[in-house]
């Protein structure tokens, strides 16, 4: 389990940030979105299946080095988010091993906003404390987070009153301002207005330093090509290709039988 | 090459590495207190009227039951009212832990899907909130005790170990039900019926010694029966609890805590893919 405040190492370009070795992830999940005891009792003796087994990742081996911005592409259900969750320690692997050589900050799809009844400020503090930061570390960063998010007085309003764009702005601000060794961003730039999206991209470019590793999951191939210096392509839980962004994206587009277009390049 | 800071490997024997898990839990204790503070603020307990409600709410509750049993029922005596108030307040510590705990995991979905942390922090935080809500009621119970002219003695210090047992039981129940609710989401809808049944089957509206021995033999399966009986003996009658009562309550509390915690820890890896 990673703790943001446990360490603050110095890393040299080229040293390993994340090492993924023969990683496999298989899990069982319920078929219904909200399984109930009532439904289970009603279907007793009918032989109805309630769970399904998902083979999300299979024999993935890769190293991510400091100074790298790694893009991850693939169709829906390819295993991109699962890989990010295993690297972040949110889901333990069922096979293989993941070694992480630094602090990790994650911005995985939903971002902050753990309790919608609480204010943005309270959620930032709770999210930070849950991630292992100390109260004083959050105090130190809070003004910068609030400023970057441009939420103004809304930072003290309950998060249930936020729009999806406001959610995304606060979530990105938290992940980007804490300055982790390894920043993982999964589809988090797809909401928010054009101005904030540009600001976020610029912040990501600022974070591309030799002593940091960035892992970016996105369907926006132009963003991946612009930001990343290395790309991997996942398909049905398997690593299909790894290399220079232009080459891997071209291979992926050929496989998917899509041409380079506005719809495949940008978040929609 | 430097040593990895964190290594993630498949869990052995269904449980996460416990030493590291407990270290992370200790490291994040600030979350639990901040969560409790935020939750109480959200329930308006940060304001004067909110704090007043913490005291008024249990008083009104005991008033309702007093009206029902002693005024409408036609019996009235100070000891029985003292018993009703004290046991009802302790019962609400357990009931509030269950109510807060049942949705602790499902409502923490965003945090669970985005952050790596010991998930058990969420039901633990719910119990801390219930304890904060219980403390003022303890003061109210003592004031009522004095007003009713009920006895005080050193035997009342037994309240501390009984309270500790009640907290262990509340933790076990909250941890267990928070995990079960991930697999069966309608448990939270059934909970009010469960707590209401527990209220009527426990020595709150009646004293344990007043029920017949033929019924009392079944009370051994009620996990809180002897806990509340011991609490009543200590807080109302200022007597020492019985050894049988303390043993029953302790065994139930630690059994529920151990089973609940094992079930939770062996399942918590599933939460991110089940929510």
Describe this structure in words.
The complex is a heterodimer of chains A (268) and B (275). Chain A has 268 residues and is α/β, with parallel strands linked by helices. Chain A has one domain (63-265): Rossmann fold, CATH 3.40.50.300. Chain A is built from nine helices and nine strands. In chain A, the strands form two sheets. In chain A, strands 5-6-7-3-8-9 form a six-stranded mixed β-sheet, sandwiched between helices. In chain A, strands 2-1-4 form a three-stranded antiparallel β-sheet, with helices on one face. In chain A, helix 4 crosses helix 5 (164-177). The radius of gyration of chain A is 19 Å and the shape is globular. Chain B is globular. Chain B is built from twelve helices and one strand; from the N terminus they run E-H-H-H-H-H-H-H-H-H-H-H-H. Chain B is an all-alpha fold and 275 residues long. Chain B has one domain (18-274). Chain B has helices spanning 18-27, 29-42, 48-72, 78-102, 109-114, 121-147, 159-183, 187-201, 213-216, 225-235, 243-267, 271-274; one strand spanning 6-8.
Largest interface: A-B, 62 and 47 residues
CATH topology term of chain A:
Rossmann fold
What's the shape of chain A? globular
The general outline of chain B is globular
| Number of strand elements of chain A | 9
Could you tell me the strand content of chain A as a percent range?
Answer: 25-35%
Oligomer: heterodimer
Count of individual helical segments of chain B: 12
Structure summary, number of beta strands of chain B: 1
Contiguous runs where pLDDT drops below 50 for at least 5 residues of chain A = none
The count of helical stretches of chain A stands at 9
Residues in helices of chain B, as a percent range: 55-70%
For the sheet with most strands of chain B, the description reads: none
Going by helix content, strand content and strand pairing, the class of chain A is alpha/beta
Mean pLDDT of chain A: 84
Order of helices and strands of chain B: EHHHHHHHHHHHH
Q: How far is it from the N-terminal to the C-terminal residue of chain A, by CA?
A: 34 Å
Can you identify the CATH superfamily of chain A?
P-loop containing nucleotide triphosphate hydrolases
Number of structural units classed as domains of chain A: 1
The figure for the number of domains of chain B is 1
